[in-house]
TrEMBL record:
Protein name per its UniProtKB record: Lipoprotein
Keyword Signal carried by entry: yes
Superkingdom: Bacteria
Keyword entries, A-Z: Signal
Signal peptide: 1-18
Length: 92
């Protein structure tokens, strides 16, 4: 009888763990691409320093979220950072 009572708890715990990893690959690949783009933007020299600063701030936050396994937020921040990197390279 006790095993039947524990089963729903185990199922919910496993479902929660599976939900955490849904964005894991996306987070990692977005972060890698964004850091490479940021290095390229820095090397080229550009006028969009405000956009560059925003991108750097977002990437720092995304990396922090990755460390705490908040992969969905990490992915969203990295995508926003890539937008600001493109803006900085355009001088905006």
């Amino acid at each position: 009888m006790k095993a039947w009572m524990c089963l729903p708890v185990i199922v919910l715990a496993l479902a929660g763990c599976a939900g955490k990893t849904a964005y894991r690959d996306s987070c990692g690949s977005q972060l890698d691409a964004a850091w490479q783009e940021l290095d390229l933007a820095k090397a080229e020299g550009f006028a969009g320093t405000v956009s560059y600063s925003k991108a750097l701030s977002l990437l720092t936050g995304a990396k922090t979220q990755q460390q705490f396994e908040a992969f969905e937020g990490c992915t969203k921040k990295a995508e926003k950072a890539r937008f600001y990197i493109r803006e900085s390279r355009a001088g905006r």
